[in-house]
């Protein structure tokens, strides 16, 4: 559970900050995305053996990847509203799954 708290809390905070694009600006948004990616990879490596629900763990990471890739595409291709929806939906589903997994792990570790 310590590993989960060590990684999940900063990842949730980064996820929330990424939703505040208008306040943080694009440069901070990109930097936070890269930091989040590095933390997510480190979290996967450190906790792979502790996955209770592997499907949700993988889906969480897939949604981060969808948000990241669609964000990169949005930066290069403008005027496609579906990409913005995919980007925001992927980001929202990532944060929700991360929170659900953290809560579930907290309940089972008692």
Quick take:
By secondary structure, the protein is mainly alpha-helical. It contains five helices and no strands.
Give an overview of the whole structure.
The structure is a single chain. The chain is mostly helical and 110 residues long. The chain has helices at 2-18, 21-24, 26-47, 54-76, 81-108. It has five helices and no strands. The protein is elongated and about 50 Å long. The N and C termini lie close together (10 Å). The mean pLDDT is 87.
- The percent of residues in helical segments reads over 70%
Q: Sketch the topology as an H/E string, one letter per element.
A: HHHHH
What is the CA-CA span between the terminal residues?
10 Å
How many strands in all?
0
List the topology elements.
Elements (H helix, E strand, L loop, with lengths): L1 H17 L2 H4 L1 H22 L6 H23 L4 H28 L2
Spell out the key features of this protein.
110 residues; 5 helices; mainly alpha; single chain
């Amino acid at each position: 559970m310590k590993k989960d708290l060590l990684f999940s809390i900063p990842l949730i905070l980064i996820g929330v900050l990424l939703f505040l694009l208008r306040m943080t600006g694009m440069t901070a948004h990109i930097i936070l995305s890269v930091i989040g990616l590095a933390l997510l990879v480190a979290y996967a490596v450190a906790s792979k053996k502790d996955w209770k629900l592997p499907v949700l763990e993988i889906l969480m990471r897939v949604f981060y990847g969808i948000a990241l890739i669609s964000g990169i595409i949005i930066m290069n291709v403008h005027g496609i509203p579906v990409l913005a929806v995919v980007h925001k939906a992927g980001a929202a589903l990532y944060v929700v799954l991360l929170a659900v997994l953290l809560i579930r792990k907290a309940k089972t570790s008692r």
